[in-house]
């Protein structure tokens, strides 16, 4: 059966009953959205402050490939397995974006028998969080243009407005547009553009905010552009926008509760891009899970060079979170792709390609253990096409580099298929106090922070930038030198070339642009060409998604 067919046969329990039974959450602190999803009040979240924290486990992966790695599926399967072994566990995931769902993915709620449900709701609108983020973002856009139209007392330079509009859909035609056409009644003519909602700084802010007050303060710090003197920033607070924006987000800031196919609680909240932003669910969700459960299992977007690094250097640095262990997800198919096999041939045994592609896994493993200072278990996410010879070789190579690897079959068997993986994690986290290392210290200059990430994690020999970008970094260093770096780079490779598979080394990482995300509290360093508004593929997933007369959705994978 397809993922959606499996999900539609799930025997879900009312989320209100499940939350009360498993974690004693009072009914009055749950705002139901139908029977199977609910929001948790911030008042209840705050009431947990004095409870001890559980153990935090991070799920990450090798560099993504078209073959898929199954990071979300593994997160769900591991959470179910830990619950089966008697460890009270909550998983924390990001919310799927509509753009990728209708574009390439067709859904992002796990797969097979390791899914979160209701699958259709989670993938399509969910509780409206992304809609609220888009509205809050576009309210600020409207206030900017309105202010200029009514006299521009702030002296905003229309040519130096940094704040685009957003929509939660892959639409390449909106990347660059001209607004204000049709005469003075429609405002003034200027160039503008759209990003996808998950690339909005409002999304990053929501995911890092720790309270309504913190949310509002961060929104007020957003730099929307510069004055006509070309150097003085204009903040959202100069337009008195932060209060209304925070009001729009009054429900979006509350964590969302759903369940797995095995009726275990999952929190799905927030979903920033893992390259242009930090690619992690909300701090509020993760901290809530740690207060409620013995174990919290969460994921970070893309490979361990992007998502896991930002989880450590941005999310943990800002929030005080301390992970106990890491699960590194890999598949035989993906490693063969990194070893040079074309996508259409990945189901054919190829020992040589697998051996060559192992370099990608090995570098991610070394980054996790050496540069993040975290113990790691390798999850070999099993596919039915994997041969015994391939599995044996992969486990031998893992053993040769001192790594513990577990073949997990949660996709086919649910939590039962990941019990060995869960036990390996238990053996680690129950024996050590949570601790880790940052890749760079806070006081390191911005340029040196970028260099540390590129040389330590990406295997680069050097970094470079144009005189303009170097000048921009020098200017940012004055007021924002203590900010962490959010690297925006292709997720497909350790280099800036998405076609460079495996573990390329001694390359140069050119920084093409730097952007200040003042409200989020980090500097975005763009390496190579990065799209903040994706396009649809030649055959988008939307073409196969449908709904029947009786309301049954099909085509979401």
Strand tally? 25
Protein structure class = alpha/beta
Tell me, what is the CATH class of the largest domain?
Alpha Beta
Main sheet properties:
12 strands, mixed
Radius of gyration: 23 Å
Please tell me what the overall shape is.
globular
CATH topology label of the largest domain: Rossmann fold
The fraction of residues in strands falls at 15-25%
Rounded mean pLDDT is 96
Helix content: 25-40%
User: Number of DSSP helices?
Assistant: 19
Low-confidence stretches: none
Give the termini separation.
Answer: 11 Å
Q: How does CATH name the architecture of the largest domain?
A: 3-Layer(aba) Sandwich
Overall number of structural domains:
3
- The name of the CATH superfamily of the largest domain reads P-loop containing nucleotide triphosphate hydrolases
Descriptive report:
The protein is of the alpha/beta class and 557 residues long. The chain folds into 3 domains: 3-127 and 252-429, Rossmann fold; 130-243, 2-Layer Sandwich (Domain 2, N(10)-formyltetrahydrofolate synthetase), CATH 3.30.1510.10; 446-527, Roll (Formyltetrahydrofolate synthetase, domain 3), CATH 3.10.410. 36% of the residues lie in helices and 20% in strands. The chain has 19 helices and 25 strands. Strands 1, 2, 3, 4, 5, 6, 14, 15, 16, 17, 18 and 19 form a 12-stranded mixed sheet that branches. A 4-stranded mixed sheet has the order 20-22-23-21. Strand 12 (223-227) and strand 13 (233-235) form a beta hairpin. Helix 4 crosses helix 17, helix 7 crosses helix 8 and helix 9 packs across helix 10 (242-248). The longest helix has 21 residues, at 129-149. It is globular, with a radius of gyration of 23 Å. The protein starts with a helix and ends with a strand. The model has no long low-confidence stretch (mean pLDDT 96).
């Amino acid at each position: 059966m397809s993922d959606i067919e499996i999900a539609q046969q799930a025997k879900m329990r009312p989320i209100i009953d499940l939350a009360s039974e498993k974690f004693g959450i009072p009914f009055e602190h749950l705002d139901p959205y139908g029977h199977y999803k609910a929001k948790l009040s911030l008042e209840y979240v705050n009431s947990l402050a004095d409870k001890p924290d559980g153990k935090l486990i991070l799920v990450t992966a090798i560099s993504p490939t078209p073959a898929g790695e199954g990071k979300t599926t593994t997160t769900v399967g591991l959470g179910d397995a830990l619950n089966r072994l008697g460890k009270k566990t909550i998983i924390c995931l990001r919310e799927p974006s509509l753009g990728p769902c209708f574009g390439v993915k067709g859904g992002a709620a796990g797969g097979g028998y390791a899914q979160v449900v209701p699958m259709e709701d989670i993938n399509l609108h969910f509780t409206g969080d992304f809609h609220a983020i888009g509205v809050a973002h576009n309210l600020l856009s409207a206030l900017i243009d309105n202010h200029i139209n009514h006299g521009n007392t702030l002296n905003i330079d229309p040519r130096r407005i940094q704040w685009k509009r957003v929509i939660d859909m892959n639409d390449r035609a909106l990347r660059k547009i001209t607004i204000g056409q049709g005469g003075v009644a429609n405002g003034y003519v200027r160039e503008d553009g759209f990003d996808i909602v998950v690339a909005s700084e409002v999304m990053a802010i929501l995911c890092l905010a720790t309270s309504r007050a913190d949310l509002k303060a961060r929104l007020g710090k957003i730099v929307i552009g510069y004055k006509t003197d070309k150097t003085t920033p204009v903040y959202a607070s100069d337009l008195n926008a932060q209060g209304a924006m925070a009001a729009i987000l009054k429900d979006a800031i509350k964590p969302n509760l759903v369940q797995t196919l095995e009726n275990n609680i999952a929190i799905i909240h927030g979903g920033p891009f893992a390259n242009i932003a930090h690619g992690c669910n909300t701090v509020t969700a993760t901290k809530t899970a740690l207060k409620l459960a013995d174990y919290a299992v969460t994921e970070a977007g893309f490979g361990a060079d992007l998502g896991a690094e930002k989880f450590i250097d941005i999310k943990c640095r800002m929030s005080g979170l301390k992970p106990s262990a890491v699960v590194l997800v890999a598949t035989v198919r993906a490693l063969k792709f990194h070893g040079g096999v074309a996508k259409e041939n990945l189901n054919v045994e190829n020992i040589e390609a697998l051996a060559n592609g192992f370099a990608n896994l090995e570098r991610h493993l070394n980054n996790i253990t050496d540069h993040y200072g975290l113990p790691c278990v390798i999850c070999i996410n099993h596919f039915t096409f994997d041969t015994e010879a391939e599995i044996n070789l992969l486990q031998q190579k893992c053993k040769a580099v001192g790594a513990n690897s577990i073949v997990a079959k949660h996709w086919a068997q649910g939590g039962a298929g990941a019990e060995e993986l869960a036990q390996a994690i238990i053996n680690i986290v129950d024996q050590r106090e949570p601790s880790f290392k940052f890749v760079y210290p806070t006081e390191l200059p911005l340029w040196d922070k970028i260099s540390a990430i590129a040389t330590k994690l990406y295997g680069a020999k050097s970094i470079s930038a144009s005189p303009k970008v170097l000048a921009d970094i020098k200017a940012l260093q004055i007021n924002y030198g203590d900010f962490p770096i959010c690297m925006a780079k292709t997720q497909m490779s350790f280099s800036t070339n998405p076609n460079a598979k495996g573990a390329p080394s001694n390359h140069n990482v050119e920084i093409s642009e730097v952007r200040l995300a003042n409200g989020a509290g980090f500097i975005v360093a763009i390496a190579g060409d990065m799209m903040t508004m994706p396009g649809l593929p030649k055959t988008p997933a939307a073409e196969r998604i449908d709904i029947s007369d009786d309301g049954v959705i099909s085509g979401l994978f």
